[in-house]
């Protein structure tokens, strides 16, 4: 077990460096372009999008909390928890691939339906992850932590660094965070997935793009969730 903890610590160091490294030139140029476009969009549209995604996410959080099986993982170690998460990730990744291929093959109308469907899959997976690592999602702060994992996985360089700091210092930060900044949340997520999801709407290649994109998005979310909870568990052990 000691050897595995050392391995996890090495993986965490590598992951944190990856999360804080400078984005690629293409990503930076894309973000600048998206920021300019967002500045040209009427404020009313931004408010509608913010409210829509806020309501969509909150509805998903409630549904996921109800349907997630509560696990008793207090008696198993970090290695077993990580293995359980990998198994769950494999299942959710397959579901996301099927969903992405199906909506991508259906053209524009079904392609647009991919957004709420994929969001629901991602949130359900995060609730499963919380349960595996022994955190009770009935607690508001745990649902808030889930939203920060989501934001960390799908955000720009600047926001990613800011969110990683919050997650690394969660025990202190949770007392000063009353709610998500939903405007930031929806804009970061939309900007992150807009380009790849646009290609999903193209007839002929939509199914392939949808399946590939959803596989990678779930993979990224799984890595982010695992390491975020690893950080909390190791910090908790150090404080005892």
In short:
The protein is mainly alpha-helical and 240 residues long. It is 82% helix and 0% strand. The chain is globular and about 55 Å long.
Q: How are the secondary structure elements laid out?
A:
Blueprint: H1 2-20, H2 25-40, H3 43-67, H4 78-105, H5 107-132, H6 140-153, H7 157-168, H8 170-173, H9 182-200, H10 206-239
Helix pairs in contact: 3-5, 3-9, 4-5, 4-10, 5-6, 5-10, 6-7, 6-10, 9-10
Keywords:
240 residues, 10 helices, mainly alpha
In words, what does this structure look like?
This protein is an all-alpha fold. The chain has one domain. Helices cover 82% and strands 0% of the residues. The protein has helices spanning 2-20, 25-40, 43-67, 78-105, 107-132, 140-153, 157-168, 170-173, 182-200, 206-239. Helix 6 runs antiparallel to helix 7 (157-168). The longest helix is centred in the C-terminal third of the chain and has 34 residues, at 206-239. The protein starts with a helix and ends with a helix.
């Amino acid at each position: 077990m000691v050897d595995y903890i050392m391995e996890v610590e090495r993986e965490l160091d590598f992951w944190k460096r990856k999360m804080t490294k400078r984005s690629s030139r293409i990503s930076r140029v894309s973000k600048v372009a998206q920021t300019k476009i967002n500045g040209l969009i009427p404020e009313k549209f931004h408010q509608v999008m913010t409210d829509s995604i806020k309501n969509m996410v909150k509805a998903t959080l409630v549904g996921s909390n109800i349907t997630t099986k509560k696990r008793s993982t207090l008696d198993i170690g970090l290695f077993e928890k990580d293995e359980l998460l990998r198994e769950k990730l494999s299942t959710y990744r397959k579901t996301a691939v099927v969903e992405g291929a199906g909506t991508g093959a259906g053209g524009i109308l079904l392609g647009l339906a991919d957004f709420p469907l994929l969001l629901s899959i991602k949130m359900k997976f995060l609730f499963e992850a919380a349960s595996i690592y022994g955190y009770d999602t009935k607690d508001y702060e745990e649902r808030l932590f889930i939203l920060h994992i989501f934001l960390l996985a799908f955000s720009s360089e600047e926001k990613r660094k800011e969110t990683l700091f919050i997650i690394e210092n969660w025990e202190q930060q949770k007392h000063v965070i009353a709610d998500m900044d939903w405007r930031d949340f929806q804009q970061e997520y939309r900007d992150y997935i807009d380009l790849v999801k646009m290609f999903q709407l193209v007839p002929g290649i939509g199914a392939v793009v949808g399946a590939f994109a959803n596989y990678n998005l779930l993979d990224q979310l799984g890595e982010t969730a695992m390491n975020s909870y690893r950080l909390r568990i190791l910090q908790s052990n150090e404080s005892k």
